[in-house]
Design goal:
9% strand, elongated, disordered N terminus
Length: 294
């Protein structure tokens, strides 16, 4: 038996479980710096999950945890082996996440490259989070943006994201339930969106749909809302009144009027729309006549 490194003492409480058979699929593992046997990462996995980080570092996938992948790439560039060690096996998912949190607490964030406390990926809140108060540099933001260009979420992931977004507003447990943005925040959001469309070469900037395209979009939306009534949100009387008051006294510029006029040239209403307009006008004049007679 060779001379034992003193820093291996932190493994005194761990049994080597790498070769032990298992029935439950989950395990807790460590990534270790072979130079001084320092634990640099604690994770939960099944099958070959603990070897995934090397592959991710080699393909430059650093978005989720730049700190971890920078360390791995540094080790690889210097031909220094990274030790992969299972420290607890034969675990249920719940047990594995609980042990992961215990180990992260034991070693601490100063030593580890973990970004959060673990346990199904739950991040630390507020000042307890290692990244609290830190801001990404413009260079890092640009790298993240370029890495995500052309990326598409799977249909299953989109459904999950949609449900999470809905729950933010729909029930009392939602993070934004009962809250409203301040006028200042709304103004900032509006300015950001406008600048984004101007500065990001938006394909639809200044483009107008043809009459044929508008008709196709309209027909598809009608079919969609007829088959998905839960997606249709009728505008309340209060909201219509607000829109009406906001538009009263509004004066369009000469250029806007010309554009609006040009957009109506050659446009024809469908028979259905004509009927709706006719009924609405009849009701209007009927009510107006009653008011005049009074």
């Amino acid at each position: 038996m060779g001379v034992r490194n003193p820093q291996e003492e932190q493994y005194d409480y761990i049994i080597d479980l790498n070769s032990v058979s298992t029935t439950n699929p989950y395990y807790v593992y460590h990534l270790i710096d072979s130079r001084d046997y320092t634990v640099k990462y604690v994770g939960v996995g099944t099958k070959n999950r603990m070897y995934y980080h090397i592959k991710a570092a080699l393909r430059n996938d650093t978005l989720k945890n730049p700190k971890k992948y920078m360390w791995i790439r540094k080790m690889l560039s210097q031909d220094i082996p990274i030790i992969h060690k299972k420290v607890a096996i034969d675990l249920s998912r719940t047990e594995a996440f609980e042990i992961e949190k215990q180990h992260i607490n034991y070693f601490g964030f100063k030593q580890l490259t973990n970004l959060h406390l673990g346990g199904a990926g739950g991040s630390l809140p507020g000042i307890t989070n290692p990244r609290f108060g830190k801001k990404l540099s413009e260079e890092t933001k640009q790298k993240i943006r370029l890495a995500n260009l052309g990326r598409k979420h799977a249909a299953k992931d989109r459904e999950k994201m949609s449900e999470i977004a809905k729950n933010r507003f729909l029930n009392q447990h939602g993070t934004f339930f009962g809250k409203k943005h301040t006028p200042e925040t709304l103004e900032k959001m509006s300015a950001c969106r406008k600048n984004w469309y101007i500065n990001h070469n938006n394909g639809m900037l200044g483009v107008t749909h043809s009459a044929k395209a508008r008709k196709e979009i309209s027909s598809k939306l009608k079919v969609y809302f007829q088959t998905h009534p839960q997606k249709s949100h009728p505008v309340s009387v209060e909201t219509r009144l607000k829109i009406s008051n906001a538009n009263k006294g509004r004066v369009f510029s000469k250029e806007a009027k010309i554009n609006m006029s040009a957009g109506q040239i050659g446009r024809k209403h469908s028979e259905e729309t004509k009927l709706k307009m006719s009924i609405t006008k009849k009701e209007y004049w009927k009510n107006r006549k009653g008011l005049i007679n009074v």
